[in-house]
Design brief:
Low-confidence stretches: 6-10
Strand order of the largest sheet: 1-3-2
Mean pLDDT: 90
Number of domains: 3
Distance between the termini: 75 Å
Order of helices and strands: HEHHHHEEEHHEEEHEE
Number of strands: 9
Helix content: 25-40%
Shape: flat
Length: 286
């Protein structure tokens, strides 16, 4: 047992050392990216609801992700560094390096891309005046990105307007508007708007609008009314195709009790047996 324990402890010690000295193998000018930090309204006394959760959500959306770590030690990076640069195309060093993880470098961080992603997320959550700016801090060959989010106030729904009852399709929409997911006083939430479009689409499909799609609906949001409120208007797009806004009905109900693909053409030529609203095609009288 001791013979096995000592080598394992030695390997573990090597990994810890390699993980702790994670910048040792970096080339001049390179910096190890250690992750992102988001600061929300740092120059303002204003706090937002669920700030910790919003901060966590924003940080999770930044890219790239830093090297994985356990208890602060980047074991996979340690394995990669421990393997070193293989001198042969095959062998133990190559295998060991594949078990590890190459260093994530600061040069891989795209600040503008992350700024746009985080801003879009805040807007989708109702912070319609949000803006995010990013910067980097480098120390001892380690770097992190710091994003400053200025959220502004979160907007709420003031009024909801459904399309005027001008036809069968809009009549169905209005008949079911009591089931709407949009509620006056709720925060603006892009996911809720998407789910509302899906709800309306389901109602229409249950009434024969087989080729309708949630994409044929638009939620127009007016945020100019003031007091951090929005008016939401639900509309059917003018570009919706004719097939999408036309209801379909069942013409015939045909039953083939002994259907077989090889006999398809012969079965269809049979004189059907009429039973209530059904046409039964059966040459075996089952």
């Amino acid at each position: 047992m001791r013979k096995l324990t000592r080598p394992l402890l030695f390997i573990l010690a090597c990994l810890v050392y390699a993980g702790c000295s994670s910048t040792k193998s970096l080339k001049p000018g390179q910096a190890l990216y250690t992750g992102a930090e988001v600061k929300i309204n740092p120059d303002s006394s204003g706090k937002i609801d669920d700030e910790k959760q919003v901060k966590a959500d924003l940080e999770s959306k930044t890219r790239p992700r830093p090297n994985k770590s356990i208890l602060g030690i980047k074991f996979k990076l340690g394995i990669y560094n421990l393997a070193g640069e293989p001198k042969k195309p095959k062998g133990f060093r190559n295998w060991l390096r594949r078990q590890g993880e190459p260093p994530v470098l600061l040069s891989e961080v795209k600040l503008k891309y992350n700024n746009d992603v985080l801003t879009s997320y805040l807007i989708s959550e109702g912070y319609l005046q949000a803006s995010v700016t990013g910067d980097t801090v480098v120390k001892d060959k380690k770097a992190k990105a710091i994003y400053t989010a200025v959220t502004g106030n979160r907007y709420k729904i003031n009024k909801i307007t459904f399309p005027p009852d001008s036809g069968v399709l809009t009549k169905i929409i209005n008949q079911n508007k009591e089931k709407t997911l949009l509620k006056i006083g709720d925060y603006y939430d892009l996911d809720v708007y998407k789910n509302e479009r899906t709800r309306i689409d389901n109602d229409l499909k249950e009434n024969g609008y087989f080729y309708f799609s949630p994409d044929y609906l638009i939620m127009q949001v007016d945020s100019t009314i003031g007091k951090n409120l929005v008016n939401v208007t639900v509309k059917v797009k003018d570009i919706a195709p004719d097939a999408g806004v036309k209801p379909y009905t069942i013409k015939n109900i045909n039953i083939y009790p002994n259907y077989n693909l090889r006999r398809d053409s012969s079965l269809r030529k049979l004189q059907p047996l009429q039973y209530h609203d059904f046409n039964i095609y059966d040459d075996r009288n089952t």
